[in-house]
Request: fold
Amino acid sequence: MSGWLAGKRARIEGEGAAVTTAIEAAGAVLVADGEGDCDIWVHIAPHSEIKRAHEIGHSEWRASLDAGLDRRFLGAQKFAAECRARGQGGAVLFVGAPEQALGADHAAAAGALGNLTKTLGVEWARDGIRVNSILTRTSEETLGHLAAYLVSDYAAYVTGAVMGIDLDD
Amino acid sequence: MPIPAHHIVATPPPFDAPPYPADIFADQTVLVTGGGSGMGLAMAKAFAQGGADVAVLGRNLDRARGGAEQIAALGTRAHAISCDVRNPDAVAAAFDEAEEVLGPIGLLANNAGANFPILAEDISRNAWNAVTRIAIDGTFLCSSEFARRRIARGEGGAIVNNSAQYIWTGFPGDAHSAAAKTAQATMTKRLAADWAPYGIRVNAIAAGFFPHADSVSGRREDGVEPLQAMIPAGRTGSIWEFGWLSAMTCTPFFGEMTGQVIVQDGGESLRRSLIMPNFIPPRERADGPWGWQ
Reply:
């Protein structure tokens, strides 16, 4: 996989060792926010705390939706604008937990994200910008490899796709 | 309609630059059903690029042999076998022959299928049985034969199924394949659950348009160019990128992946507008049930 992302620049937002390690191992140069153009934008959402719906306060609810949905949309919007300004395609990847893995806050955010993925994948297809999601409970090597593959040119015909990794995903 | 020049079309690396090393499947044998041509041959070549020996199953032995020759040209061993995957005894015999010639089968690609434009009311009992049973019974029979052998050996393995982009939306004008391809995807998840304790992984690719010489789209008189413009990605798929993703799911790179159905269709199956062209029933379409010839 050493050549999958050779010559690519990637910005990764959020914590995820497997994804970050694999994208670097695949040959991409990591770029911090504000440090210049990139070809790949990956957003990894933190897992919100699991609570029953009636025990989730509105501020917690808002925080989950902000991290799991709003921040992702706004980040993708900014990345896509940068791609268009440069006249280059790009790849967006959202990483998070499956819809029913956590609480109602996450169920709402992840469902919204799934259909957002399908929507943006089509809306930006002719900008050469692909948009995909991995919704999984796992955080191991396969997650990193799958993430690196999806943002590489090997997945040039994969867009608007939402997938998991394990049986429970 | 050509793709406007200011649109950007994402393209894959060329065929001779596969995403995995040439020995990723070294000392392994893959059995590919319908491997003599089209998408099955693309899967077979992708496994061969990773060093796997390939058993090519086909109803037509000549076609299977033709595919095997192309696979062998990539530097691995290939063996063609005539088999009707609807017949459990024939499937068992084919596995016997493949294992005798090439060694234990540790990888399986279920690709065998048939597909053609036809109105639902015109599908004969024979045509219905042929299309549904090749894909549904064939995938089940080959997968269960594979799994029994792997379990008996105490070894895991990987299966990849060739499903289709239209499995969640229906496909008017193709009722037999619409039913068959969805069955493949839903059984993928259940087989994965049943065989996870044995280390056997099962995944599927829900493939979009990958025209080839033997596909309906590949036989169009005016070629595939008019199809490019209708797809959000701006092109039909290159058949080798389908082969690669199929084979990738069977590599150790994706070693924890199982029960997944990955859509690879350039956005083709997704809604692209709230306002759609006027609906014309398949029966009344000037160019046939699929709306084009």
